[in-house]
Amino acid sequence: MDYITDPRAIEDKSMAIIDELLGPLPISPEERKVVKRVVHTTGDPEFAKLVRWSPGAVDIGIKALAEGASVYTDVNMVRVGVNQRLLTSKGASAVCSISDPRVVEEAKKTGNTRAMTAFELLADEMNGAVIAIGNAPTALFHLLSLIEGGRCRPALVVGTPVGFVGAAESKEALVQADIPYITVVGNKGGSTVAASIVNAMLLQMP
Fold first, then answer.
1. Which ranges of the chain have pLDDT less than 70?
2. Which one of 35, 117, 124, 182 has the fewest beta carbons within 10 angstroms of its own beta carbon?
3. Catalytic annotation, residues
């Protein structure tokens, strides 16, 4: 059996197939690259119908990352999925504190999830950052409360928590919040989707 083995050739062919499947869309080239990366990651063209963003959000994210914004994530799966080489080229990093002993201890005391607790403890560091939440609706809900309370002001929130308890509702709350956002509506999403959105913006940095 003949098959393609070159990684770049595989990705190029995949993106060409996705382009054909998507057809024309009333979005910018930068936004289209985000949608394509999500479809590429999930293998599901239907995701193109689910991706939403606030006006200018993709450009805001690209600019923030190009200027050295770090990426704060709810779980390590999102952190490791982000392109570290491109982040470090701008002097930035991907940060997840869910396993930090301080977070673990505080979560035990409060009864809150560790993802919530991590964002609570990191709030002062997240001004101007890109936040990527792919797993925990509680983290997204809590982040929005921190933003509303003036505790932090990220440049962009990528919110794609997945599941049947709070995921869709947390993303609806994100859409209503006064913050630039990129999300996927409904129960679908996940850590790979969040990372793919961040990577799509990293790949477009000048």
1. 2-6
2. 124
3. 40
